[in-house]
Amino acid sequence: MINLVLILSQWFYAKEFVGLIGYAGMAGSVGSLLATVPLTAWISASGWRLPFFVTGILLLASTVMLYAVLIRLPQKREGGAHAHAKVRHEKMLLVLKRILKSRQAWAAFLCHFGLVGTYVGFIGTWAVPYGMHIFGMDRPEASQLVMTGLIGAIIGAPVTGWIASRLGSRKKPYLLIQTLIFLAWTVFFLCGGKPPLFVAVLLMFVIGYGNGASALTFAVVRHSFDVREVGRFPDLPIPAAF
Q1: Does an H or E element contain 137, and which?
Q2: What is the helix (H) or strand (E) element at residue 83, kind and residue range?
Q3: How many C-beta atoms surround the C-beta of residue 124 within 10 A?
Q4: Cβ neighbours of residue 170 under 8 Å, at least 6 residues apart?
Q5: CA gap 235, 214 in Å, rounded
Q6: Plot region of 194 (φ>0 → left; ψ -120 to 50 → alpha; else → beta)
Q7: Using a CB cutoff of 8 Å and minimum separation of 24, what contacts does 173-177 make?
Q8: Closest by alpha carbon to 233, among 145, 117, 107, 130?
Q9: What does the DSSP assignment read for 92-111?
Q10: Closest CA to 225 of 88, 116, 109, 114
Q11: Residue from 21, 22, 23 nearest 3 by CA
Q12: Which end of the chain offers a freer environment for a tag, N or C, measured as fewer CB atoms within 10 Å?
């Protein structure tokens, strides 16, 4: 994700960056969704060797394509002499000190933890046992509960990016999403961890939506910091997610 943020921030304008980072988040959520029930069904039908072999081939093809797009094509366009021109960079330690003293940096860190850390911790780890023990579901039914969150994540990334672009603001929709996720977890707390099943499904969707909308964190970073620091700065909020 760090590399993707750096590439998008350097290749595209700020207004384009908001939408693109949303679509990138959606692509990641689609991959997570495909890795659940569809992948399980494929492995059950054909064994694990064929799915792993096909996945490896796709990853290798993606590597070759990325090399062509990110390295070979820019070198041809810029020319040999210009492509190898030296660029002076500020010392990493100085940049790190400045970022660690920034309230904006720590706000982004904590906000990213609130959106993604809670999602990864609950839906990524405890959601299936939660559905089985609290609602008496079997494992496939509990897995569908997880898929509800993934669907919310797929929708949340592009929709929130589109809203931010339409409003011309990144912070207002970001604060709204933070408030929505806080209210969702508050409902869980007030219900003693066992809301009605319909409400639990809705909350899973909302929490997943917040995870998808977390891509807006990087748009906020792109807006708040110099573009030369964006490639270094994501090291701070990304660990908050895990």
Answers
A1: none
A2: helix 80-83
A3: 16
A4: 18, 164, 216, 219, 220, 223
A5: 15
A6: beta
A7: 173/213, 173/216, 174/111, 174/213, 174/216, 174/217, 174/220, 177/115, 177/209, 177/210, 177/213, 177/216
A8: 107
A9: HHHHHHHHHT-HHHHHHHHH
A10: 109
A11: 21
A12: C
CA distance 12 to 8: 6
Query: What are the tens digits of pLDDT across the range 183-235?
Result: 999 998 999 888 999 999 999 999 989 888 887 887 777 776 665 555 555 55
CA nearest to 207, candidates 164, 242, 240, 178:
178
DSSP string, 109-128: HHHHIIIIIHHHHIIIIIHH
User: Could you report the per-residue pLDDT of 82-135, keeping only the tens digit for each?
Assistant: 545 555 666 767 767 777 777 777 787 888 888 888 888 887 778 888 888 988
